[in-house]
Specification:
This protein has a single domain, classed as Alpha-Beta Complex (Protein-Tyrosine Phosphatase, Chain A). About 50% of the residues lie in helices and about 10% in strands. The chain has 10 helices and 5 strands; from the N terminus they run ββαβαβααβαααααα. α4 packs across α5, α5 packs antiparallel against α6 and α6 packs antiparallel against α8. The chain starts with 13 loop residues before the first strand and ends in a 6-residue tail after the last helix. This is Protein tyrosine/serine phosphatase.
Length: about 230
């Protein structure tokens, strides 16, 4: 199993450059950074990160502010738009929640992926609260654009459970919260993306991402392309 990056105070940070065809230190996913220690913050910046993209709602950012919130490296690009949105009422099925996000918040999801493409040279960290749902969707779209297989995208998604929720000492609440963080959940989401939209590329192009940004995204994260 791929190990999290050694950023003290951040348990679910991982470099997607471990995946075939993805450039090292180009795209990193994590949970929120409010628990990062001073050493952890230094380690993140020393990793070559030029942009931190916070996918949380503005209200979440106010409640648990990022330590980078006032730094030039930081951008808040909410996947759920500017207003407080309650997704819990849609039920417990994660794949269904992901389908709702992809369908009803498509422009915001696309803006988040475009923000990765538009970041200054360097690594991009994408995070939400736990680094599972919103982060999982945005990184899945980016990885599919880069040609990473569905199986590997789903496998990467499931690592969050091991890093945060399903460790040996995890309590019952944590286990219940993360028990759906399985490859099958992401595979069902990708099935919906493919069947309704024709895949990641038509989805993004159809909701406002330009062809130049698609090229920039590939150039940024694909190991065999120049930036």
């Amino acid at each position: 199993m791929r190990r999290p990056l050694p950023w003290p105070g951040c348990r679910n940070a991982r470099d997607l450059g471990d995946l075939p065809g993805i450039r090292d230190r180009a795209l990193i996913r994590s949970e929120g950074h409010e628990r990062l220690t001073a050493e952890g913050r230094r380690a993140l910046l020393a990793y070559g990160v030029s942009r931190v993209i916070d996918l949380r709602l503005p209200a979440e950012c106010e409640r648990l502010p990022s330590p980078f919130a006032r730094a030039p490296v930081y951008r808040n690009v909410s996947v759920l738009g500017p207003r407080d949105v309650l997704l819990a009422g849609m039920g417990a099925d994660l794949a269904e929640i992901y389908r709702v996000i992809l369908d009803d918040f498509a422009a915001y999801v696309t803006s988040a992926v475009a923000a990765v493409a538009q970041a200054p040279p360097g690594g991009v960290v994408v995070h939400c609260h736990s680094g599972r749902d919103r982060t999982g969707l945005v990184t899945a779209l980016a990885l599919r654009i880069a040609g990473v297989s569905r199986a590997l995208v789903a496998e990467d998604y499931a690592l969050t459970a091991a890093h945060l929720g399903l460790e040996e000492d995890a309590d019952d609440t944590a286990r219940a919260h993360f028990e759906q963080t399985r490859p099958e959940t992401m595979l069902a989401t990708l099935d919906h993306l493919d069947s309704r939209y024709g895949g990641a590329l038509p989805y993004l192009l159809g909701h406002g991402m330009g062809a130049a940004d698609v090229r920039a995204l590939k150039g940024r994260i694909c190991a065999d392309l120049l930036t």
